[in-house]
Amino acid sequence: MLSQWHGFRGLQKDCADKLQTGLLGEEPVDLLLDAHPAEGSQQRHAVIEIPAENAAFVLRNFSNLDATEASSRIRKHLEQVRTSRQRKRLSEDGDWW
């Protein structure tokens, strides 16, 4: 998974750099994430935007997470977004079987 982490400084920048590297091996590899500090959080929380899915969420206390845990949370949230969209499409289309 490709990601861009910007706006972080100090220890949070080091953590963001590790997460950027850690996400490289995550599926889907062609997905682009954009991350920046949540307003008013003193860089403790990161806003993760997924333009291809038109979705965003807050990764709380991201600098306290290791790259594996953070990427797992991002992947789980992405799966929830996709599942929700799929259910919505199926309900709009009616019976499909």
Account of the protein in words:
There is one protein chain. The chain is an alpha+beta fold and 97 residues long. It has one domain (2-93). The protein is 42% helix and 21% strand. It has helices spanning 10-23, 67-93, and strands at 2-5, 32-37, 46-50, 55-59. Strand 1, helix 1 (10-23) and strand 2 (32-37) form a beta-alpha-beta unit. The longest helix is centred in the C-terminal third of the chain and has 27 residues, at 67-93. The protein is elongated, with a radius of gyration of 15 Å. 21% of the residues are buried.
Mean pLDDT: 82
Number of separate structural domains: 1
Largest sheet: 4 strands, mixed
Percent helix among the residues? 40-55%
Low-confidence region ranges = none
Range of strand content: 15-25%
Task: Fill in the keyword field for this structure.
alpha+beta; 97 residues; four-stranded mixed beta sheet
Strands, helices and their partners?
Layout lengths: L1 E4 L4 H14 L8 E6 L8 E5 L4 E5 L7 H27 L4
Helix pairs in contact: 1-2
